[in-house]
Structures are given as structure tokens and as C-alpha cells.
Hints:
Distance between the termini: 109 Å
Oligomer: single chain
Helix content: 55-70%
Amino acid sequence: MITYRAELVSKHHDGGMAWEWLGPVTTAVVGVAGVAGTVWTASSGRRHQIDLTKAQGAISLAVSLAAEKRLVYAKFLQRAHVAFEEARILVGAGDAMALEDSSMPTPPPGVTYTARYRSGTPFALAMTELSKSHREVVISGGLRIGSQATTVMCAIGGYATGLEDVWAVNRIIAETGRLMHEDAMRPAGLELSSESA
């Protein structure tokens, strides 16, 4: 009968450490580190891509809102100039109506009339169009810009009834244009320098 005996220890074992395991273990460690690095890189890449997409969306929204504001504000200012020109024609022709007329109903407490004019006239139609633009300005620009737009309408109506002079109306329209410009440029990050303010 033949017996085989398996030796667990090499016959040439010199009592030192066996180095045969070092190569496979090192390969395994490097492999695990490589997989972990790949997973980490992919994860941080996804996070970065999500952050970038959010930032691009916010910038795109800000640019779109600023463009919309510029259009609304430009339309309001153009209509304000048309209404003011019609008011100047009305006053020049002697067709302006004074506020002191006794046929005017008494306003409710806290309300003051700022203008009076006949409906159907070019001035009345221009003021109607300006009023439509005013609503858009209030929605787009908020309270501060909306209040300034109301001041423009009151000044133009006031000019038509003798409460304002030409220079006061021009100053109010110019100041409103400046404020609207600042507001429309702010969301897009195009802040005005202190020199132009």
C-alpha cells in the first residue's frame, strides 16, 4: 500500500515569513482601492452635475425674468411718453379739464383726484393703455416699482389738469426709467456700478 503524505510546510522552510501571499493580497488591496475610487469619483461627479444643473436653472430663470421685466418696463415707459405727449397736445389745445369743476363727485375719504379728462379722446385712450401696462409693471416689479409707475400716471394726469409742470413730469418719468433699469438688471447679476447710479 502506498501512502501519500501532504506537507503543509515547504521542505525548504527556513523559519522566516512566507512571501507567496504578498502578491495576491497586494493585488486585491489595489483592486479594492481602485473600485472604491471609481465609485467615489462617479458619486461626486453625479453630485457635481446635479449642482451644476441647479445653478444653470437658477441662472436661466433669472435671465428670463430680467428679460421679461425689460420688455414690460420698456412698454410702460413708451406708453407713458405717448400719454404725456397726448396730455401736452390736450393742454396746448386748451381742452384740459380742471379738477375744481362742481360736476365732479365728491371722492371717498382718503382719495384725491389727480386727473380729469373726457373719455374717447386720444389722451384718454393713451391713459387706458398706460393703465394696462401699469398692471403688468406691478406684477413684474413689485410694490416699489409699481408705486413709482403709479407716480408716473398721476404726474401725467396731473399735468393734463394743471397740477404738474412739464419738467416735473419729465423728472418723474426719467427717475422711473432709472429705477426700472436697475430692477431689470439686478436678477441677471448685472449690478450697476455706483458711478452710474
